Amino acid sequence: MSTWHDYLKEEGHVPDWPYPIRFDHEQEIDTDVLVIGGGIAGCWAAISAVRQGLSVALVEKGDTIRSGAGGPGCDHWCNAPANPLSNVDPDEWAQHMADRPYCNGTGIQIQCREDWDTLLEMEQMGGKIRDTDDEYVGAKGRDDKTKLMISPRYTRIHSYLPDADTGKAPDPDEKLNNVVIRVWGTTFKPALKKECKRLGVKIFDRVMVTSLLTETGVQGARIIGATGLNNRTGEFMIFKSKSAVLATAGAGSIWMISTELGGYSNMMSRTITGDGTVMAWNAGAELTKMESTGVLRIATGYKHKWYSGAGDASYENVPIVDANGKVLPYPIQGWVDAGAMVPSPEVEEAIRKGILSGEYALPFYGDFPAMPEVERNATWKLMLGEESTTKIIMDTFNAAGYDQSRDLLQSYKFIEGNSLSQWREAGYGGGLLVDWNLKTSLDGLYAAGTQMFSPEDHSYAAATGRYAGRKAAAYAREIGEPKISREQVEREKARVYAPVKRSSGLEWKELHAGIARVMQYYVSEFKTESLLNMGLNALRKIEEESVPLLFALDPHKLMRSLEDVSLLTYAQIIIHASLARKASSVPLNFQRIDYPTLDPPEWRKFLTIKLENGKVKTGELPPTFWGNMKNQYEAHNKDYTGVYREK
Residues 381, 131: contact at Cβ < 8 Å? Predict the structure, then answer.
């Protein structure tokens, strides 16, 4: 494979931009439903809406065939209690999942009721959800009749589901819940794009949406469309719609940038840069849980952690041994806390002490050869080979000659250190506030997947996208034609093209690095009123002094510059939300040194935040503001026809 260096050496010059550049040129698109973001949630929203007989436009910054966090694949379809092998009631399971603090009860109820229907629909589109080739006969969790493969990692029923008659909790070893299914997720995204095209969805790939358009151009008014930038031609796009579904996920890499080490420096898609949340914020939408962040996780170039040999996520049933072959007391299957295959705090501490005392020798390894062949193949090929974050790792290892029947796989757990706690991630639950129609606080604007607050996994994105699409279509069918404010369009057009009017100044990487440094210093592990305000002032200074210096020489760099501006605003929102919560919280992963009390009763509530006439407004909601989940779902979905399995 030739490199960029090879190309320059052979050709002797930087190539010309390969596409015609049309800065300032406009294209107008009129549609009933506009879906912004072509990831898992966005594709499902588009398919669901177009099946209601309306015109639908889908806008995606990358290429819909593989875009988004779930584009390369997924290995688990979680929380599908309506599947035929399940031993739990969907509504009871949803209630259990919603018992966790600061979750999204609305989204969880939708997922538990509809994601089995969604998976069956995926199968009809061509996605593979069963072991139809009998490749894993004999594997734990495989059902010979349906050929579904239940995940052995998520199997045990817990004490939270007592017997209806006696009230006694079942023995976790006696009954399995069977709510998580192993799937061939690499087949899903191509099938979704193909179905979108078959149904007549107008797909606009390589277009970054830059703003939401409001009725009469007023903040807080009904959403009637959006503007966009073609990141290959630079053409300005104007979308007019009766309703819109926002599905661009949250934000990544606000605390760090590492294009050389990690490609981008977070486990999410490169295109996830807070655009949707920020454009909704600018339009006046209400957000919640924005103060919740977490320590840097994986796939950053700096940190491996989960996907590092065994012990968590897709590494089902892999024993872990030390450098001398001694088996460590890691859980091999079943739930630990929220279901992750990681040691309990007590076991982890025991391992740490064992390392210090010499009982365990570093490094540790995933002992694939010790596994039965069918289990080894299921883990390596089906789990790791189908999951987006690990597929490229598996392909690289296979190409290098790795043989999982013979070779151990090194784990970086306990040797990479914990020194990066000041580098954090924003994808821990902050997002748009939604109601039981998945409508935001703005008329005409719906949200799905990880665009919402407290999102879950791949199947959650699929089920909520499918749901939001039909709700947005129902709204569009009843609402009148929108009228776009030309003044609002011109303001946005001037903002978008400002960097290409300059030929020197500041490039996007420099701006991004400055934002990350501010967040590392002032919004990291240690938070106080003083530090947060210093961070806010530093970001405002960047906004006032550095953003006007941004320059971009081609449409791609213009897109990157606009992404940085989104990240800058997203970072400011995080600080505003952090200032508003004057208490520390374990479930929010939030610690204020100046307010050290953990989760005092008066602060067990959602804080909301929005922009109104240039001022930041905060509010609050009770912990379960969504009400009775079963009753609310059924009240809002009287006409829904699916295969929901009554218990």
Answer: no
This prediction's pTM = 0.92
What ranges make up the beta strands (E) of 147-196?
Answer: 149-150, 181-182
Q: Please give the full DSSP string across 441-504, using - where no structure is assigned.
A: SSTTEEE-GGGBSS---HHHHHHHHHHHHHHHHHHHHHS------HHHHHHHHHHHHGGGG-SS
Pair 375, 493 in one domain: no
pLDDT for residue 551: 96
Residue 334 has pLDDT above 50, yes or no: no
Residue 433, in any domain of the structure: no
Q: What is the pLDDT of residue 260?
A: 63
**Domain presence at residue 435:** no
d(CA 201, CA 54): 10
* 472-526 per-position pLDDT tens digit: 999 999 999 999 999 999 999 999 999 999 989 999 999 999 999 999 899 988 8
Q: In terms of residues, how long is the chain?
A: 647
One domain, residues 505 and 601: yes
Dump pLDDT digits (tens) for 270-325.
Answer: 788 999 999 999 999 999 999 998 766 555 555 554 445 554 557 777 888 999 99
Q: Do the domain assignments include residue 532?
A: yes
Q: What is the pLDDT of residue 14?
A: 75
How many structural domains does the chain have? Answer: 2
At 406, list the tokens: 């013979």
Decide if 496 is inside a domain.
Answer: yes
- Whether residue 93 contacts residue 273, with contact meaning beta carbons closer than 8 Å, is answered with no
Write the CATH number for 575.
1.20.58.100
b/e code 196-232 from CB counts within 10 Å (16+ = b): beeeebbbbbbbbbbbbbbbebebbbbbbbbbbbbbb
- Helices 508-522 and 529-541 pack at an angle, to 10 degrees, of 170
Provide the residue range defining the domain that includes 406: 320-411
Angle at 583 between CA 580 and CA 584, to 5 degrees: 120
Residues 405, 491, single domain; the answer is: no
Q: What is the pLDDT of residue 394?
A: 83
| Chain centroid, CA 174 distance in Å | 34
Q: How far is CA 168 from CA 9, 81, 165, 229, 610, in A?
A: 73, 21, 8, 59, 45
